[in-house]
Amino acid sequence: MKRLCAILLGLMMLAGLCACGRRTSPAPAPKTPEPVTVITPPQPTPSEAEAVPVSTPDGATPLTAAELDWFGRCFFNVVPGWGPNRFLTCAYARPEDMDLAAVLACGPEGGWNVTSQERNMIAAGGTDSVVRIPLEQAQELMLRYTGLALSDTQGVGLDSLRYLSEYNAYYRVGGEAEAAYCRILSGWHTADGLTVLQYDGGTVTLRQLDGRWVFVSNLPGRSA
User: What's the CA gap between 42 and 21, in Å, rounded?
Assistant: First the structure.
């Protein structure tokens, strides 16, 4: 009997030792995520080559930033293919001498929809580059932005276009004509009521006529 009790006591002590050896270790604390640093690259600044010095003639008033922005976004670059930008496609000291073929080259909206009958009548051949320029819309463009009818000009460049009386339209055949975008750089109002704008392609002069802006000249290079 004493032997049995000794065996049971030994087994109980062995079980206790095993239990102590299997204690559960506490779970490791979750790691705190490292902070993320967002690096914003420095914004580019205009280079010295892009800086445009403003040199205003005596007696002239520089255009404000708001005026320059309006000419760059609300007058020019709205409809580059048929609007004020077209009058930057050629050089002229007076509007009567502008190259009308260059000004009208893109044609109004829908000018590319030329019928096969029209193509045959103007002997367009196999070229796909044919643009119809209705005389009425050409007159409207000129009157709106120069105050002149086509008949008031020297007709420069019109002989390079083909005309069909049946459609009362000019046609540009062949060649390419791209929209003339521009970037206004500086400008001023003169004492005699003109507004001069320097842009990335030259210097254009405007004046007010019946509440609208019309073109006076467009010359290459910068003037001061």
Answer: 61
